[in-house]
C-alpha cells in the first residue's frame, strides 16, 4: 500500500498542503500490517487445475473456490483466457491474489440475494487481497433506472425480483467487503450491474487503481462507513480510511435518472455521530455521463478529514459533478467539469433537485479549491412540453410542441408514463428527424399520448458554498448559471454563497455567464438578512456577462 504522505507529496507537494492549513507531517502513517505474510515461497495455481473450463458453458464457482481453499498461506490464482461463469467465491485466506489474463472474463450468474451480493465476498481484517486484470461482467439488466422490474438474465435462467424497482437493482457487486482491510483492485474492467461495482462497508486501506467502470446503475466505487450494528458483520473492526481511487474511468453510472448513484461515493448510510474518518484520495480519474461523479455525504457528528481530489475530468454529469457534505481539510486541484446538469427528469419530478457543477455543504471547513473549471457550453437549458407521443417498443418520439435541433443529438429525453406503472421513460436522442420528431436509443416500455416530456440540460448553479466554514478559491473559472424558465424552478447563479461562518477567500477567480439566454440567473447569489443579494463582483472574483446584478427581494 502506497503511503499517504508519499502520495500527497506527489499529488500537490508540501507547499500546497501547507497552504491548506496542514503539513505532510500531520498526515497519519498507516500502521504496519497486523498479519505478516507467511514465510516461504509464494504458491501459484491455475483455476483450470481445479476443473474450470473458461468456455462459458458451465458454472465454474466450485473450481474458483477450490483454488482459493488450496492456498491457506496465500498465493496467486491464475485465470487464463476464457469466460468463467461465477456465483459467489468467499475469500477467507490472507495474501491471496487473483490474476486475470487481459482477455479473461468473469461473468456473474444467479440466483443472487443479499447473502451472496458479491462475486467475491470478504470479511477479513488484514486481508492483503489483490484482484488484477481482465473483465468482470456482472450481467445485470440495464438501464435499471427506467423502473422496469429488476432481473438478472443469464444462461442458467432468469431471476425476477418483483420488489426491485429503478436503480436499486439486484444485489450484485464484483467485490462486497465488510470489516476488511488492505485490498488492491488493479487494472480490472467492471461493467453491467444494477447495483454497485465495488462495495466497501466499514473497510480501510483500500486502493482501486487503473480500473474501468461502465453501465453501473448505483455506484462505481462505494465506501459505506456505518455504525457497527448496521454492517451485518461480527468480526473485528479495521481502521476505516486511508482509501485511494486512482487512474480510473467511470462511464454511464446511473446515467438514466436522478437516483443515488455516483462514480465514487463515500457516506455514512444516513447515520449521525459516527465520528471522523481520515484519509481519502480520488486522483487522475475521468467521468462521463454519471449521475454524480464524486459524492461524499455525512450527517451531524460524522465527517471525512484529509481529502484529496486532483486531476479530474468530467463530462455530462446528470445532476452534478462533485458534492461534499461534512468534510474538513480538503484540497481540490486541477478539476474540469464540462456540461454538468444534463438530466431532463429534473423537469418531470414533483420537486426540483439541486443541479450543479460542485457543492460544498454540511459544516465543511478548511477547503481549498484550486484550478477548478466548471463549464456549461450549451446554448439553452432544459426544454419541456406536454405533447409527446411514443408507442411501446418504438424508438421514435413525436412532440408536437418541441423544437428539436441538431445540437440535441446525444441529449437525454424523458417522457412521463412511457414505461410500466406510469414510470418515466428516459432515453438518449440518437437522431433528429424533424423539429418535432426524434429517434431514441431505447424502445419505450408503454404507449402514451399527450405526455409531459423534457430534454436538454443546464448547469443551474455552477458552484454552491453553503452552511460551512473556511473555504479558499484560487484560479477558479466558472462558466455556468442558467435558469430554464420552468414553473417553480429554483433561482440560478454562477456562484451561490450561503451561511458561511468565515469570509470567503478568493483570488484570480472568474464567474462568467454561459452562452445564450441565462434565464435571469445571477453571477453571484447570496441570501442576506431575508433579502437576496446579487453581486456584480466580490474581492478576488470577477463576474462577467450576467444581466442580473441589482438587489432584489
From TrEMBL:
Bilayer-spanning residue ranges: none
Keywords: Signal
Keyword Signal: yes
Leader sequence segment: 1-19
Tagged with keyword Secreted: no
InterPro entries linked to this entry: PbH1 (IPR006626), Pectin_lyas_fold (IPR012334), Pectin_lyase_fold/virulence (IPR011050)
Protein name according to UniProt: Pectate lyase superfamily protein domain-containing protein
Organism: Sphingomonas longa
Amino acid at each position: 500500500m502506497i503511503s499517504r504522505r508519499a502520495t500527497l507529496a506527489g499529488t500537490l507537494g508540501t507547499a500546497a498542503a501547507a497552504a491548506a492549513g496542514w503539513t505532510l507531517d500531520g498526515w497519519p502513517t498507516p500502521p504496519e500490517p497486523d498479519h505478516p505474510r507467511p514465510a516461504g515461497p509464494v504458491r501459484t495455481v491455475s483455476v483450470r487445475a481445479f476443473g474450470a473450463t473458461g468456455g462459458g458453458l458451465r458454472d465454474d464457482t466450485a473450481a474458483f473456490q477450490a483454488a482459493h481453499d488450496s492456498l491457506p498461506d496465500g498465493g496467486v490464482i491464475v485465470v487464463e483466457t476464457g469466460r468463467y461463469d461465477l456465483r459467489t467465491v468467499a475469500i477467507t485466506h490472507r495474501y491471496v491474489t487473483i490474476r486475470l489474463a487481459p482477455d479473461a472474463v468473469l461473468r456473474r450468474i444467479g440466483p443472487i440475494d443479499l447473502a451472496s451480493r458479491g462475486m467475491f465476498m470478504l470479511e477479513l481484517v488484514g486481508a492483503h487481497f489483490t484482484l488484477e486484470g481482465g473483465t468482470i461482467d456482472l450481467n445485470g439488466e440495464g438501464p435499471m433506472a427506467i423502473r422496469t422490474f429488476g432481473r438478472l438474465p443469464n444462461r442458467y435462467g432468469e431471476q425476477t425480483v418483483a420488489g426491485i424497482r429503478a436503480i436499486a437493482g439486484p444485489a450484485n457487486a464484483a467485490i462486497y467487503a465488510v470489516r476488511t482491510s488492505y485490498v488492491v483492485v488493479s487494472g480490472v474492467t467492471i461493467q453491467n450491474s444494477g447495483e454497485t461495482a465495488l462495495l466497501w462497508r466499514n473497510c480501510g486501506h483500500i486502493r482501486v487503481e487503473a480500473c474501468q467502470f461502465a453501465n453501473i446503475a448505483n455506484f462505481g466505487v462505494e465506501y459505506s462507513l456505518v455504525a457497527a450494528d448496521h454492517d451485518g458483520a461480527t468480526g473485528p473492526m479495521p481502521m476505516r480510511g486511508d482509501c485511494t481511487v486512482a487512474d480510473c474511468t467511470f462511464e454511464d453510472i446511473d446515467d438514466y435518472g436522478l437516483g443515488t448513484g455516483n462514480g465514487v461515493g463515500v457516506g455514512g448510510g444516513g447515520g449521525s455521530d459516527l465520528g471522523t474518518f481520515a484519509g481519502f484520495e480520488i486522483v487522475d480519474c475521468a467521468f462521463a455521463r454519471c449521475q454524480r461523479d464524486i459524492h461524499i455525504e455525512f450527517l451531524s457528528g460524522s465527517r471525512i478529514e484529509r481529502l484529496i481530489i486532483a486531476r479530474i475530468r468530467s463530462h455530462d454529469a446528470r445532476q452534478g459533478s462533485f458534492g461534499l457534505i461534512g468534510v474538513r481539510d480538503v484540497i481540490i486541484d486541477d478539476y474540469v467539469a464540462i456540461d454538468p446538469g444534463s438530466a431532463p427528469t429534473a423537469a418531470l419530478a414533483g420537486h426540483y433537485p439541486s443541479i450543479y457543477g460542485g457543492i460544498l455543504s454540511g459544516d465543511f471547513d478548511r477547503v481549498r479549491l484550486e484550478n477548478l473549471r466548471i463549464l456549461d457550453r450549451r446554448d439553452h437549458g432544459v426544454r419541456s412540453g406536454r405533447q409527446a407521443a411514443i408507442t411501446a417498443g418504438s424508438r421514435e418520439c413525436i412532440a408536437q410542441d418541441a423544437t428539436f435541433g441538431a445540437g440535441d443529438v446525444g441529449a437525454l429525453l424523458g417522457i412521463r408514463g412511457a414505461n410500466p406503472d406510469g414510470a418515466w421513460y428516459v432515453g438518449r436522442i440518437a437522431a433528429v428527424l424533424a423539429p418535432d420528431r426524434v429517434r431514441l436509443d431505447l424502445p419505450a416500455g408503454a404507449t402514451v399520448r399527450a405526455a409531459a416530456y423534457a430534454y436538454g440540460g443546464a448547469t443551474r448553479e455552477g458552484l454552491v458554498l453553503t452552511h460551512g466554514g473556511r473555504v479558499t478559491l484560487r484560479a477558479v473559472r466558472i462558466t455556468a448559471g442558467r435558469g430554464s424558465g420552468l414553473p417553480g424552478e429554483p433561482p440560478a447563479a454562477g456562484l451561490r454563497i450561503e451561511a458561511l461562518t468565515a469570509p470567503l477567500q478568493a483570488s484570480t477567480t472568474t464567474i462568467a455567464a454561459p452562452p445564450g439566454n441565462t434565464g435571469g440567473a445571477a453571477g453571484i447569489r447570496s441570501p442576506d438578512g431575508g433579502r437576496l443579494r446579487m453581486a456584480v463582483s466580490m474581492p478576488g472574483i470577477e463576474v462577467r456577462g450576467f444581466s442580473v446584478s441589482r438587489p432584489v427581494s
